[in-house]
Amino acid sequence: MRKIDYKLSFVLLTVALFVFNLLQAKYTGVISDETYYSLYGRHLSWGYFDHPPMVALMVYISSMLFTGALGIRFITVIVQVVTIFFTWKAIDDQKPDTRKVLTFFLLVTSMALFSILGVITTPDSALLLFTALFLFAYRKFLKNATWLNSGFMALAMAGLVYSKYQAVLVIAFVLLSNFRLLWNRKFMASAFLAVVLFMPHLYWQYIHDFPTFRYHLVERAGDFEWKYVYEYFPNLLAAYNPFIFGAIVYIIVRNTPTDHFERALHFLIVGFVVFFWTAATRGHIQPQWTLGAAIPMIILLYKYMWLNDKLRRFIYITVIPMLVIIIVIRVLITGNNVFSDLASVEKHRSKTEAIEKAAGNLPVLFFGSFQESSKYEYFAHKTSFTLGFVDSRHTQFDIWQIERQYHNKPVFVCQYVPGMSKWNRYDKGWICGFATDSLQTVNRMELQFDMPDLVLERGKIEKIHCTIHNPYSFDIDFNHHRFPVQVMAVFIQKENPWYHPVKISGPVGIIKAGETISREITLEVPQLLDGTYRFGFSLSTSICKPLNSKLIEVSLK
User: Fold this and answer.
1) SS3 for 383-401, per residue?
2) Which of 211, 201, 333, 216 is nearest to 286 (CA)?
3) How far apart are CA 136 and CA 126, in angstroms?
4) What is the mean pLDDT of each run of 10 residues along the chain (557 residues)?
5) Which of 102, 267, 363, 472 could crosslink 383 through cysteines, CB 3.0-4.6 Å?
6) In a 3-state reduction of DSSP, which class is residue 476?
């Protein structure tokens, strides 16, 4: 019986995986983050609050070809096929055969996180693709440092950083593994070209005051908790397949890199794992943040499987059952069933329909959560937007500032406000809200203040000079008939805010577009526990308490 050519085996397995992923992408409900990215795709830009723009481009192209779930996911399915191809090319096996191809696909598909990203659209799918492209290009560059390979590597590096910010670590760890690259003019030219290609996004960050960098590097940091350190490795084991991860640890401990390329693989794996374990001291680490190590793991494990018979037998014995489990789980969550609804937004369809029934054709205003607005637009195909509170994180809605378009216009406010909201029952619970004929929001108003004392005594009166600036192109009425504005002091400790009313000298009335007024705030320091607090001010209305000033650190005693 004639053996099947390994190239034909590769093509057949690729097609089979593509079809499986495509069917699951079509028939599995989308998740909340995907509905958020679908809004990205409808508003193409060089940047977004949470991520670089590659995921938006993927969704945009998908939406040109399909509607529904495939309108978000089709390019993701294509991306994984291309990722697998370039991962195989980066391995550069000189004696491939059908058995080796089957083993390669076994490794790829049994890595849980890698498998999921062939269906679910996230920035991580693109990160995997360009990591594979970069490693393929780097291997070619090490063998033959031509200008053509240098240019290819530049495109791969630009694609990496346009996909996700963790991509900078991919490039950095490769550079750390081979410092001589700093004296290689073709590599440095490649890096320079990648920076030039990335300039449109950097300019977008500049004109928006670097919101993404401030969020990821400063605002996202939390207090140290041991649970984040302890949960890190169990989460990695689940994401990468515990047997694959264990085999990688064995390979790295037992073997010294044989060349610059393999040394780069070691640096990427160890670098990503250690870097984010250290970062766990600042808050919860999501396993997908370490995905820069996934392609190096596959390449390294593939190589040493054929050099170590015991390792190869271990992989076959342990990984095949894991693959069966992954396939069963993927089949269970495909289609409209209880397993699918656990992870998808399908369970929210009836809630969306209830809100749409109450709102009619009015745009819907949500608060705090970008997911609610994203899910509503996905199901209802009608306008919605989100406003943040003092204790909610910033989102892309803070960049779009859609609420400006509806100043003094009718909207449906999806929020409980005593005396204004109505409750409506639907099959899975209750929704509440009310229609207003004239919306006024003040989230973008700016209050600057000079704090005379950073150590505050409970019950003591503090006099604080402030200015209030109206950056809008329309007037803000502090005595608005539906949404009057009140100045409130905010004390925040461990993410918990306390709001305290203050007195302000003189009436405010209407602050005209572009106008800045000066006032004196009288604060009676509240009876809070001793300790350190972040302190600022909120211009609060009946529907929202936004943060309108900087936060400073004060001590109460």
Assistant:
1) CEEEECCCCCCCCCHHHHC
2) 216
3) 15
4) 76 96 91 93 94 96 94 97 96 87 93 90 96 97 94 96 94 95 94 96 93 75 72 86 91 93 96 90 83 94 93 92 89 68 71 90 92 91 92 90 95 90 82 93 95 88 94 96 94 89 91 95 91 94 94 90
5) 363
6) strand
Phi and psi of 554, rounded to 5°? -130, 160
Strands 384-387 and 516-524 come out as: unpaired
**CA pair distance 87, 490, nearest whole angstrom:** 52
The pLDDT assigned to 25 comes to 93
pLDDT of residue 183: 94
Backbone Cα Rg of the chain: 27
Tokens 């406000």 found at? 417
Answer left, alpha or beta for residue 179, where phi above 0 means left and psi between -120 and 50 means alpha: alpha
Give the Å distances, CA to CA, from 230 to 285, 286, 290: 11, 13, 16
Return the ∠ at Cα 134 (arms to 128 and 139), rounded to 5°: 130
pTM recorded for the entire structure: 0.91
Report all structural domains of the chain as residue ranges with CATH numbers, in order of start.
6-332 (no CATH), 346-436 (no CATH), 446-556 (2.60.40.10)
Please name the amino acid found at residue 353: E
